[in-house]
Amino acid sequence: MTNTLISIVGPTAIGKTALSIKLAQHFNSEIISADSRQFYKEMNIGTAVPSKEELKAAEHHFIQHKSIEDYYNVGDFERDAIALISTIHKHNPVAIMVGGSGLYVKAVTKGLDYFPEVDTAVRTTLNANLKSEGLQHLQQQLKFLDKKAYDTIAIDNPQRLIRALEICIGTGKAYSLFLTNSEKTRNFKTITIGLNAERSIIYDRINQRVDIMMENGLLEEAKQLFPYKHLNALNTVGYKELFNHFEGNHTLDFAISEIKKNTRRFAKRQLTWFKKDSSIKWFDYETDINEIIRFVEEKL
């Protein structure tokens, strides 16, 4: 059998984790998480990390293996995930990857564009500017330096925004000039499965998940992380809204409604990203697991 990576994608709260475990059990394989929010050991409830029971049900990798104080980017993940896939394929022709972070999925399945090294002082300055002048200031700076990148990247993601700006500033060239969209050759084939549902169902599932997170202690988790709110890892949905509440900017009820709204927007962006990939085989989130397994086995 040809070495294969089964990649499971889709919007947040759609059921990707449950599907990945069923496929891992069927193929007696291991799961690679491509959810960049789940890399950090200090972030648990707000990132929907798999439960202890789910982690026991199948071998997982890249779950809470880093600290929020570590610098770990998509290039690091590409390198580490490719090495792990090669290791898994030495004893099993099938590996499983799951996650909704589109850029991280692309890094493994198709590779990233090459960017030159830039003086780390540029990033340090940009992070300081983010803290002192806010996200919108940096967005306008990118719009001036590289309108094409401004129109195409996720400019509401501070890490992506700063990455584009540091390339512009550090090289004196537009970030978009380095985007070749050329795919790297991998020594495995990829079968990508997408889970989806009607937009109203996705939004209902997101709202329910946020309510469950609050019941499970997200507020207390965010309080413990509040002193580290300046770190990039914590500039993410579910935490930044509660940080604003702690600073007296919002009521708790408003913060919770903002988490739901921003998570819904995130899900919409995820679908926009993945819908561009015509190789993805989409299934309704309630599709019987046996139908999905039959599809994968035919592809294998």
Automatic annotation (TrEMBL):
Binding locations of ATP: 10-17
Class in the EC hierarchy, top level: transferase
Sequence positions that bind substrate: 12-17
Sorted UniProt keywords: ATP-binding, Magnesium, Nucleotide-binding, Transferase, tRNA processing
Site positions per UniProt: Interaction with substrate tRNA: 101, 123
GO biological process annotation, one example: tRNA modification
Catalytic activity, EC: 2.5.1.75
Reaction(s) catalysed (UniProt annotation): adenosine(37) in tRNA + dimethylallyl diphosphate = N(6)-dimethylallyladenosine(37) in tRNA + diphosphate
Coiled coil location: none
Entries under Pfam families matching the protein: IPPT
Residue ranges of the region described as Interaction with substrate tRNA: 35-38, 159-163
GO MF annotation list: ATP binding; tRNA dimethylallyltransferase activity
Span of the signal peptide: none
Cofactor(s) the record lists: Mg(2+)
HAMAP family: IPP_trans
Subunit text: Monomer.
Family the UniProt entry places it in: Belongs to the IPP transferase family.
General function of this protein: Catalyzes the transfer of a dimethylallyl group onto the adenine at position 37 in tRNAs that read codons beginning with uridine, leading to the formation of N6-(dimethylallyl)adenosine (i(6)A).
PANTHER family for this protein: TRNA DIMETHYLALLYLTRANSFERASE (PTHR11088)
Name of the protein in question: tRNA dimethylallyltransferase
Source species of the chain: Winogradskyella luteola
Gene field: miaA
